[in-house]
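Working notes for the structural subgroup meeting. M.R. asked for a predicted model of this chain before we commit to crystallization trials. I am recording the input and output together here so anyone reviewing the notebook later can reproduce the run.

Input as submitted:
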Amino acid sequence: MDYMYTEYYLVVDLATGEAEEVELEEKFVKEYVGGAKLNLALYEKYKDEDPIVFGSGLFTSTMVPGSCLGVLTAKSPVTGKIAHAPITWNAGAELKFTGYSFVVVKNKAEKPTYLWLHDEIADFVDATALWGKDTWQTTDAIREEQGEDRIQLLVIGKAGENKLTSAQVINNYWGDGDRFGFGAIFGEKNLKAIAMRGMGELDVDDAEGFLEKVEEVFKDVVSQVGSAKGFDAAAYANIPAAVKAAAAKQTHRVEADFNSPLAYKVYLKYREDPSVMAMSDIWNPGVLVSDPIGFAAIGNAVNPEAAGEVLEAVFRLGLNPVAIASKIKAKDAKGAIADLEKLAESSEAEKFDAVYSPISPESERTEAAYIAGICPVLAAKAEALNAETLAELASISTGIDFDADAFKM
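Returned structure, recorded in token form:
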């Protein structure tokens, strides 16, 4: 494939410790475009080898507004069906920069392992010393080991190691859109993390035409999104008023995903004055509310002022906050965290239901976003990011004639 993707996708066999580069053919992209749709095609191709697929969309890591999205695709241990989990922030973009637009991870490693993708190289690294560490400790340890603070990771905590269906894959330190127990799949495979860092570039068929159209779309998107930010931009999460009021006193800043004008993620500080902007000696002053729906679930379960600290523990343990909120008995932070630690170490006899949300591919626009590599939260708010517009951008950037139906599953 000459444009918008890297030349190869990667097939990783954890059982043998081998990685194979496979040509990403233009006819494959023409038929499946990218994101969840192409992931699904790759899953079907390798389904006999128990794969989990991490892929990017056609526009992931480009100048298209909201082009942050990576997608995890696998058979959910929660639903028993194939599911797609959105990966926002910077990890999806970093995947393309490594030189691989899609990674198929199959079979099971003999011992704990992490996959280190960098500059068209795939290394299998012994993660025995990391097994048992929480997601924050693991993220820091891998960045230190590889000497790069900007490494992006998909990582599991104790819940994933113990193969709980309430486990989720964590994006560096923060939870994301995994409601399907994919953390348990990582644990079953002895896969502690996928670490990514690269300096790759993408080619565009008609760079000038693409830039002109992107500028037009960006203006429309900014106009449609408006000035809402923080929890006001995440109204879909239905965060209780008392929880929002408590969080307002702890709010330090709001942040957006890679190349997105929508700052809906809120960073809370509860270990120091939230108004402090300078770096301090406190290594972990708070938590990024990267999952507003999960934050709402935790806020309903504990005292509102403790919601942020409890969410931090959820992320460290690699749990899905929506799945486990009802299992928290204590209302205070210390007691709730103790409940979570017991759960993460449990055998978890019962299964949790997957919880769908406005950032799942349940409408035409969010479905198109999952294929294109666009933040589904942004796509839900911005009509300009519709299938027709994405098809026009795809045609300009690749030289392939796409129509709106290409951005439907």
